[in-house]
Amino acid sequence: MPRTDGIYAVPSGTKGVTLQAIQSGKYNGFLDDITNDLNAARPVGAGGTGATTPDGAAEALGLISAKDIAGVNTVGGTANAITIVTSRGYDAYAATLFLAFRAAHDIAAGGTTIDLDGNGAKPLYKTVAAGLVDVNLGDIIATGYYWITYDPAADGGDGAFILLNPGNASSAYQVGDWLETARTLNSDWLKRNGGIYEIADYPELAALLPALPDGVTWTNTNAISSGRVRKVQKTSTGFLMMVDDNSSATQVYTSGPAADVWTLVATIPTFRVADFVLQSGTFVAVDGFGKACRSSDGVTWTSPTTILTFTGIDGIAYAFGLFVIVGDAGKIATSPDGVTWTARTSGTSQFLYSVRLVNGVLMAVGSNGTILSSTDGINWTARTSGVTAILYDVTYGAGLYVVVGGGGVILTSANLSTWTPRTSGTSQDLSAVTYSTSGFLGSGLIAHSQKITVAA
Description:
elongated, mainly beta, 456 residues
């Protein structure tokens, strides 16, 4: 091909001269040369794409090929091992891979993998300020739409998928016990797990929490007329909310995916709900007076029964195939079905106020600086916190376990063995902590309301 640095040049001896015969060999060769050139890939430097196919052109120009925005046919697997089958059918992982999928499960704690078109499971990470970390609870919810790409340099060069929009598919946030409602929000407002606070009213809280970005719109819904919202749980059809009526009963409400219209579906007498979980279609709720009840649909509930010798239950979680409850005097019990309970030895007589599954470890925290951990829900290890404050909640993110408690206490640990106190900037009790892509959020008992706040 007569090209120099990508520029076509006419071969010598092929231009016509007046009154001189054209040599057929050279002329025909010239025509063949032109034909070949027209059918060949024109170099990028000569204004072409450097390729003869759309995929090749995209690669030569450094663009994402249409083949790499794959159509997804099937999403399956489990909460921690997602499988995806595409219409394209990838035969290898590459840096240009970029696709969207609709999640089939809420992902669980403890790390998640994706196997795309049978090419082998690769870890799924998200990006935070400290770098790449495992995705966690709330980053992917069932029926949400998510974008992923592939980074062959991640995971020490073994390659990993990167979740580009963790948590953004959800249209609603969990509602805690204490809420302050809001309208159209900007950077003058703070959010913590459904609670909305104006910076000017809560300067100490503002010192802890990052402000909301501009343009976030929230809608208030008068979900209940009285009582106190204890927890909202996402379900397969929308949301379920349990409310302490401030007297002697618990009210159960449900809504659709928009969380805008709430319907009272059940009242549980002689039961003051403290916490509940949903696992494999079974709700198990506990109250502050040592009782538990169950439901398979959120509408029909069993009669509350006292659990063993509990006089108060403050928290419940599900992990390692067991429902786990914690409460007064260091009591812990487990059940495979929410019916038959077995007492476990905690090694402490301190009150336990919360139990959470974080980073694949069950954590319980309570009075007098108590921190317990377990990898099976049965055997518990006491951790030395170095404080005597009441500890209310625990979470994990960016390689750190974080515990918050009374008097503004914040503790962090990378290994559960050594805990470091952190400066919170407040003396207010911190009752909850959670982790998001922008960092850790902690909040105290600010206010309470009968409203539900939903993000749009």
